[in-house]
């Protein structure tokens, strides 16, 4: 009997080590995630989760910390993509009755990697158009493209930035054999078309309020050569119109932008409009 108990303990310990070996995080991250999931009730919204990260410093490249690809959980430093993934994973766990750290780690893996499988650097969804396509196929988000108007513009994806600027990416700089794989992924995206709302149409109207909901993911489209999506955040309706909750490079932290999204977009010449994703 004692030997059986010891064997069971060893098996559990080995499973825990196996899971931990795939994840890079600090104790503060797991504490925060578990604390947030413990507070969930039926009224807990996407925006509630997003607002729990207000003031967290903006830091880029927090996923590029290991020599081999591992899931990185960092709630202490966020960029626009990791904020969206962190909040989305929390919301999906909450809606499914999942409350453990292990549940969250699995959900974040499912969101960050193609078909939810971590299999090296190329398995991470680097372009957000790829993320949208993959997560819509997995029925984790809805890709909203109707009605027209306001979805009156069409984006044709044309990406090549990573394969033509490998020196800008730690993993590609370290291993040039990855570049052809990234190029293949870019080519699979190129030519895809998606309807979006042009920035001139983002007004405080009854139509737009009926189409975009608080907590929807906003993906800002752009015409910068080689790229598809320039920035991400969450929709927040205020009295004067639509605002963006985002991890802001300008403010150096997670904020609800004080200016309307319309004004925000006008300040960036390469921004063309917004795509809308809704967490299922």
Topology:
Blueprint: H1 2-21, E1 23-24, H2 27-38, H3 46-51, E2 71-72, H4 80-95, H5 101-112, H6 128-137, E3 141-144, E4 153-156, H7 161-164, H8 170-174, H9 179-189, E5 193-198, H10 206-211, E6 217-222, E7 229-238, E8 241-248, E9 253-256, H11 261-266, E10 271-279
Parallel strand pairs: 1-2
Antiparallel strand pairs: 3-10, 4-5, 5-10, 6-7, 6-10, 7-8, 8-9
Helix pairs in contact: 4-5
Any overview of this molecule?
The protein is an alpha+beta fold and 280 residues long. It has helices at 2-21, 27-38, 46-51, 80-95, 101-112, 128-137, 161-164, 170-174, 179-189, 206-211, 261-266, and strands at 23-24, 71-72, 141-144, 153-156, 193-198, 217-222, 229-238, 241-248, 253-256, 271-279. Helix 4 crosses helix 5 (101-112). It is globular. The N and C termini lie far apart (47 Å). Residues 1-19 have low confidence and may be disordered.
Essential attributes:
280 residues; two-stranded parallel ribbon; 10 strands; 11 helices; single chain; disordered N terminus; alpha+beta; eight-stranded antiparallel β-sheet
